Amino acid sequence: MEFSTAADELYGVEPEEFVATRARLAREAKADGDAALAKRIGGLRRPTLSAWAVNLLARSAADDLDALLDVGGRMREAWGSGGGLGDLEQRRARLVAALLRRAGDLAAGAGRPLRDQAVREVEDTLQAATVDEGIAAEVRDGRLPQPRSHTGFVPAGFALAPDAEPKPKAKPEKRAKPEAAPPEKKPERPKVSRTSAARAKRAQTLARKADEAERTLADRTERAGTARQAAEDASAEVGRLRHELERATAERDSAARRAERAEQARARAEEAAREARKAAGEARRAADRDAAR
């Protein structure tokens, strides 16, 4: 078993089957003697409904998803080179809207319609995949445990307005620029950074707790399965022993009946022998009397 194969199977099942499938795959890896793989599989987290819906797109709408991710790659190239986006943003909007409809149809077809919050999370993930190359790779793999998002409109490291960079060089008024720019940018960046950091920390804490809860649930599920199997085996053994007891009891009763009949036959034979001995004695005595005369 390879990790990628196990992960593909695991994130391809429905959410409520995830824990049981993960436990089974971990057991199979452990049975194959690969404890490290079993531990790695056991550490995979169950996807949220929105993440599961995005994973559905990776499996059932791969062509449309690739088209969106291709547009995202071209947009990142345009941001990096300082070129224009042209109609890329409009194409992205159309593809995202089409994929949202497809995700809703797929989820509803599987009996799990997406509510407004889940739809927003799917949309945020698709938008983030066009901006962040790492998220794009995660979305393409179809193994997302949680939805993704990206703060801002362009990738980290790219200028928001490429044509704004030459302005400091064109204007020599260095005093006015540093004094005016920092007060506008510095108050916002720390605020966004602190908020993002707090949210990220809370998300990590909740994800860790959810992961621990899932591992505990998987362990309890595995133990319950083992106990249930042991109970079934014991019940089968009890049934077998009960059958053996019933057969032995029947054989004992049959043997007892045969012994009783044999005893009755013996008693009759003994009585017959006694009567024969008695008759023989009488006949001998009669013969003796006749001889004496």
UniProtKB/TrEMBL annotation:
Protein name per its UniProtKB record: Transposase
Biased composition (Basic and acidic residues): 164-191, 208-225, 239-293
Region of interest: Disordered: 141-293
